[in-house]
Amino acid sequence: MNDLLPDASGRWEALEEIVRHWLHAYGYRNMRTPILEQTRLFTRGIGEVTDIVEKEMYTFTDGLNGDSLTLRPEMTAGVVRAAIEHNLLYDRPQRVYSLGPVFRHERPQRGRYRQFHQIDVEALGFAGPDVDAELIVMLARLWKILGLQGMRLELNSLGAPAERAAHRDALIKHLEQHKDILDEDGLRRMYTNPLRVLDTKNPAMQEMANAAPKLFDFLGEESRAHFDGVVARLEDAGIAYTLNPRMVRGLDYYNGTVFEWITDQLGAQGTVCGGGRYDGLISLLGGKPTPAIGFAIGMERLLDLWGQGGLAPQPECDIYVVHQGDEAQRSAARIAETLRDAGLSVIVHAGAAGFKAQFKRADASGARAAVILGEEEVSGRVASVKWLRVDEQGNTAPQQQVAWEQLSQYLVSKA
Ligand code: HAM
Question: If you count Cβ atoms within 10 Å of the first and of the last residue's Cβ in the chain, which end, N or C, has fewer?
Answer without folding.
Answer: N
